[in-house]
From TrEMBL:
Gene3D superfamilies: Outer-capsid protein sigma 3, large lobe. This is Neprosin PEP catalytic domain-containing protein. The keyword Signal applies. Residues 113-134, 151-171 are annotated as: Disordered. Keywords: Signal. The keyword Signal applies. Residues 1-33 form the signal peptide. Residues 170-424 form the Neprosin PEP catalytic domain. Pfam families: Neprosin, Neprosin_AP. PROSITE patterns: NEPROSIN_PEP_CD.
Length: 424
């Protein structure tokens, strides 16, 4: 007697023919269900793409394969948010942080060279008209690489470096590893730094490597508020290994709120020249030219929104204060540094690089750095941070080394190769 392991669509009888019909019917019903679920997924993905990709006034093909859509400023994804239906776009911050402004072309005397300007790859093929903003177009493949349509453009939970965690294993558990400098114990209204730009090697497509600053409010529980900005290499998110400018925000520890770049409603962009999530080039080379970008995030004391500036010339836009609970007032911690995902391929530590992939001791031209690290105080002044601490989960894999001098103010070198003889 034959038998069949699936639930069927005819009453089971003892004849072989019935068993055969029973099996065939089962397979047909299974394949119909599979087809239905594929078409449902296609529909879900298409609806998501229609939501994200707003009608463009003009589209620019970038040499790296991206399409940049120039979208009318008032049609950007931010305005899908119910609270922003009648929002009047603020075209400039009420106040800009005062204080010692470092010349971002000036490098420490040890380098014997100026750092060079950085552009985005798509600029070679055109620019967006005034009144529009550049948005990297999301493709079907981008969404399909995510674990689900809902999780597309979001970080995993517990991705935050928690320097004083009572249980270091809790931090390692999430697979995220860090090498950071941080300050806490005061009210902070912003942060600034100049970040060295590299293109670290990523071992697995589901891993990433980034360098950023974090503006944090609340506890490290379910209520954490975070604003983040920097550069990243993330094959899962972008489908390649290019170094890209990015931002992130969350008001509930990465659970339901927030996203990368403009992949959900939240950040309001006003700048027509810089695209979030677009490649930045050139990048630094080992014992070669060094390139860096400067990022400033600060709270406008007048309106209460959190603004972001890229370099000296580009005020990109703002996160409206209503998005946050704790950050509606001020930040309680600022962090600067690197983060990677260690998925432990083959049961060993990943060889995904952080920063340049070299340890901090190697110094300028070899190791990656943050320089002119500053915070914004209650009087909206940029100032040197007091009492900088450092944190890394496994210093044999990725490490951090701080310093201070006249040219670079507070700085640190950070990063590492990941797996090596001391990091298994």
């Amino acid at each position: 007697m034959g038998s069949c392991a699936y639930g069927g669509c005819v009453r089971f009888s003892r004849s072989r023919l019935s068993v055969l019909v029973f099996c065939l019917c089962s397979l047909v019903s299974l394949s119909s269900a599979a087809r239905l679920s594929v078409s449902r997924q296609k529909l879900e993905v298409q609806k998501h793409l229609d939501r994200l990709n707003k009608p463009a006034v003009k589209s620019i093909e970038s040499p790296d394969g991206d399409t940049i859509d120039c979208v009318h400023m008032s049609h950007q994804p931010a305005f899908d948010h119910p609270y922003l239906k009648d929002h009047k776009i603020q075209m400039r911050p009420g106040y800009h942080p005062e204080g010692r402004v470092f010349d971002d072309n000036k490098v420490s005397t040890e380098s014997k060279e100026r750092t060079n300007p950085i552009t985005q790859s798509w600029h070679v093929n055109g620019k967006c008209p005034e009144g529009t903003i550049p948005i990297r177009r999301t493709k079907k493949d981008d969404v399909l690489r995510a674990s689900s349509v809902k999780r597309y453009g979001k970080k995993k939970h517990r991705a935050i470096p928690q320097p004083r965690s009572a249980d270091p294993d809790l931090v390692n558990e999430s697979g995220h590893q860090h090498a950071i400098a941080y300050v806490e114990g005061d009210k902070y209204y912003g942060a600034k730094a100049t970040l060295n730009v590299w293109e670290p090697k990523i071992q697995q497509p589901n891993e990433f490597s980034l360098s950023q600053l974090w503006i944090l409010g609340g506890s490290f529980g379910q209520d954490l508020n975070s604003i983040e900005a920097g550069w990243q290499v993330s094959p899962d998110l972008y489908g390649d290994n290019n170094t890209r400018l990015f931002t992130y925000w969350t008001s509930d520890a990465y659970q339901a709120t927030g996203c990368y770049n403009l992949l959900c409603s939240g950040f309001i962009q006003i700048n027509s020249e810089i695209a979030m999530g677009a490649s930045i080039s050139p990048v630094s080379g080992y014992r070669n030219s060094q390139y860096d970008i400067s990022i400033l995030v600060w709270k406008d004391p007048k309106e209460g929104h959190w603004w972001m500036q890229f370099g000296n010339d580009y005020v990109l836009g703002y996160w409206p204060s209503f998005l946050f609970s704790y950050l509606a007032d001020s930040a309680s911690m600022i962090e600067w540094g690197g983060e990677v995902v260690n998925s432990e391929p083959d049961g060993q530590h990943t060889s995904t690089q952080m920063g340049s992939g070299r340890f901090p001791e190697e110094g300028f031209g070899k190791s990656s750095y943050f320089r002119n690290v500053q915070v914004v105080d209650a009087s909206n002044n940029l100032k040197a941070p007091k009492g900088i601490g450092t944190f890394t989960e496994q210093s044999n894999c990725y490490d951090v080394l701080t310093g201070n001098n006249g040219d670079w103010g507070h700085y640190f070198y950070y990063g590492g190769p990941g797996r090596n003889e001391n990091c298994q």
